[in-house]
Amino acid sequence: MISIERPGLHLRHFPAWLQQEQFNTTVLRQSLQAELPWLQPRVTVYGRQHLTPRLTCWVADPGCSYRYSGQVQAITPWSPVLNDLRQHLQQHLGVRFNSLLLNRYRTGADRMGWHADDEPELDNQAPIASLSLGVARDLRFRPRHSGEAPFAISLDDGDLLVMDPPTQQHWQHALPSRARVMTERINLTFRVIRPA
Ligand SMILES: O=C(O)CCC(=O)C(=O)O
Prior knowledge:
- It is built from 4 helices and 15 strands.
- By secondary structure, the protein is α+β, with helices and mostly antiparallel strands.
- It has a single domain (2-191), classed as Jelly Rolls, CATH 2.60.120.
- A 7-stranded antiparallel sheet has the order 1-2-13-10-15-8-5.
- β11 and β12 form a beta hairpin.
- The longest helix has 14 residues, at 80-93.
- It starts with a strand and ends in a 5-residue tail after the last strand.
- The mean pLDDT is 95.
- Bound molecules: 2-oxoglutaric acid.
């Protein structure tokens, strides 16, 4: 485990965690690609509508709704494989996750802009656990208020990255596009939503 510490930021990076937990990451990625109802939502940026530059899917316990760019996401129920992943993470981290956002980056052109996962419905005392499948991509971090230096972590197939509190309060993250990447990556962020 690699621990990354900055003022207001605590990250735990477990390279190839899924392989150590005996998952076949290629089979897992292909089954998620084929089985999940992937959507490409529209978002409004500065008054103009755009398709998000990636595919997404929101998986959650009943009642765990999530508002993203003004829209409440449709809830997909936990499939056996996603529930199995949740159980492994819960055992490893001692946290009961009730929701999961999946992001699918079809090529290096797909990306995620700067943001923090600090929506009011998220429990800000709980960590966010991020699993990566497929091609390696850089996840960048920058401080929200301080003069700390930005940095990036390369997230490879099977990696687990735990973002512990209070990281979301003090830092933002982004996944930039990469012109030379031609293949897919799926990222899964397990979260704790506060009951409504
Ligand atoms: O794809 C990633 O690693 C980042 C995903 C992310 O930023 C998020 O789900 O909030």
